[in-house]
Design brief:
Layout lengths: L10 E7 L3 E2 L5 E11 L25 E8 L9 H16 L5 E7 L3 E5 L6 E2 L2 H10 L11 H15 L3 E8 L8 H11 L4 E7 L5 H10 L4 E4 L5 H13 L7 E5 L5 E9 L3 E2 L5 E4 L2 E5 L6 E10 L8 E11 L8 E12 L3 H5 L3 H25 L2 H18 L2 H7 L3 E5 L4 E4 L5 H9 L10
Parallel strand pairs: 2-18, 4-5, 4-8, 8-9, 9-10
Antiparallel strand pairs: 1-3, 3-16, 5-6, 5-7, 11-15, 11-17, 12-13, 12-16, 14-15, 17-18, 19-20
Helix pairs in contact: 1-6, 3-4, 8-9, 9-10
């Protein structure tokens, strides 16, 4: 976990939303925890001003590093404009890297090649090195296969050699990972998890959605489709701007539960759905840490479910203590950035115990929305029209009820909506591959609770 001086850490707040009341015999407590990071020198996704040679995060000691991995397999030459757009997008991203950041570029085929700077360690970004990096993009040429695990391993070595606090990758691919086994890729993801975050983009429509989203999920980054290569420059620029806005790495969500209680699940539910349950790292008696990645000025929501022992009507207990933590400097104990409490109160008041907290209800629906979209698209691909219609109809209903207009628009490209409120739909006879892949890739994106 990275170390930061107090002045560098944004202010974190944690707000807990829940219905504390359980019926007699009730054992599951649900809560939404909204975590917000503000200030502390964050830039909200905007590049920092250039730093001078005497700045501790300037050329003498970068605080962040980024490696851009560009697919250069043979398919990037079909059509040839695809690689040209990839070069332009990478150049735009390089221009967005702030002074003092460690920077490297990797060409990915069935091998991983460091095309800039080339010495096994990233360069330190400055006007001169950015110009050199952009010139090196002329070395990018299409040919060979695809072995993404190798690209990620090289990125990990480069970022590790720079000894930076915030480590980030951007990966572009246009095809399937055909030159290594799924097990080899999963082994790489397991080895890289927690070492750097990585945003992944699929360009065109010849790549595998679950492969791209799986890489981004494992490395706590974002995944998206850029169906038209001409859109790469704008997308890469936005990605790098967001990366340059990150000010603190490896904040963990620490959950402590009392004797007899246990965590059933932990999910990030905004801005995207991401199940963190299996990523728990034990941190003490009845305490576990869940990774949240890097933060800038932003807010995220997490859904917790805690199973508690039945204490009986009229009794109250602390179901869980939620803390945001970061490692202290020089191996000192972790610092607590913010804290919140999840409570349980048993009652025989039916109205109190059956009331569902609006935030909990909303995000339960958003998680279901992501799930039924995946189910519906999988069924559509396998030819099960009835099941696909039912699931995508339910998705339309959930998107309509929650006000998730972006997902509703994507669904309307796959189904004809007869009645959104009831989820009555018909599968479209013909669907553009890009539209189906866009819906699948963005299915986990959520909207916040309406105020």
């Amino acid at each position: 976990m990275a170390n930061f001086a107090k002045s560098q850490v944004p202010h974190f707040s944690a707000e807990v939303y829940q219905n504390v009341y359980l019926p007699e015999g009730g054992r599951e407590v649900h809560a939404i925890v909204t975590v917000t990071a503000t200030g502390g020198g964050t830039t909200g996704g905007r590049p920092k001003p250039a730093t001078g040679p005497d700045d501790p995060h300037g050329p003498g000691g970068p605080d962040a590093g980024v490696v851009i991995m560009v697919d250069c397999s043979g398919s990037m030459d079909h059509p040839p404009t695809k690689l040209r757009h990839a070069r332009q997008a990478t150049a735009a991203a390089i221009d967005t890297v702030r002074d003092g950041v460690a920077l490297a570029v990797v060409a990915g085929t069935h091998r991983a090649t460091e095309i800039y700077p080339g010495g096994g360690r990233p360069a330190v970004a400055s006007p001169a090195t950015r110009a050199q990096a952009k010139a090196a993009l002329e070395k990018l040429s299409a040919g060979g296969g695809t072995a993404i695990g190798g690209w990620l391993r090289l990125a990990d070595r480069l970022l590790s050699s720079a000894d930076v606090a915030i480590r980030h990758g951007i990966l572009l691919t246009d095809g399937r990972n055909e030159h290594e086994t799924p097990e080899e890729l999963q082994g790489t993801l397991a080895a890289c998890s927690g070492r750097f975050t990585c945003d992944v983009r699929g360009v065109g429509t010849d790549w595998e959605v679950k492969e791209v989203t799986g890489i981004a999920s494992a490395l706590l980054g974002t995944a998206d489709i850029v169906a038209d290569p001409a859109g790469l420059t704008a997308d890469f620029t936005r990605m790098m701007e967001t990366a340059m806005g990150k000010e603190v790495a490896d904040v963990a969500l620490r959950l402590w539960t009392p004797q007899g209680a246990e965590i059933a699940f932990v999910k990030q539910v905004a801005p995207v759905v991401e199940d963190l349950t299996g990523r728990r790292v034990e941190s003490g008696p009845r305490s576990g840490d869940y990774p949240t990645g890097s933060w800038g000025d932003e807010s995220r929501d997490y859904h917790l479910c805690v199973r508690v022992p039945d204490a009986g009507v009229g009794r109250e207990m602390l179901a869980a203590r939620v803390s945001l933590i970061i490692a202290g400097p020089d191996g000192s104990p972790p610092r607590t950035l913010s804290q919140g409490l999840v409570r349980a109160v048993w009652t025989d008041d039916t109205a109190a115990s059956t009331s569902i907290n609006p935030q909990v209800a909303h995000y339960t629906g958003q998680a279901e929305l992501a799930h039924v979209i995946q189910q519906g698209l999988d069924a559509r691909k396998s030819g099960d029209v009835g099941f696909a219609t039912a699931k995508l109809g339910r998705a339309v209903q959930l998107a309509n009820a929650s006000g998730n207009a972006d997902t509703a628009k994507l669904l309307a490209k796959v189904v004809d909506v007869v009645d959104a409120a009831t989820g009555t739909v018909r599968l479209k006879a013909k669907v553009a591959e890009a539209d189906e892949m866009t819906l699948e890739t963005r299915s986990t994106k959520t909207v916040r609770v309406k105020k």
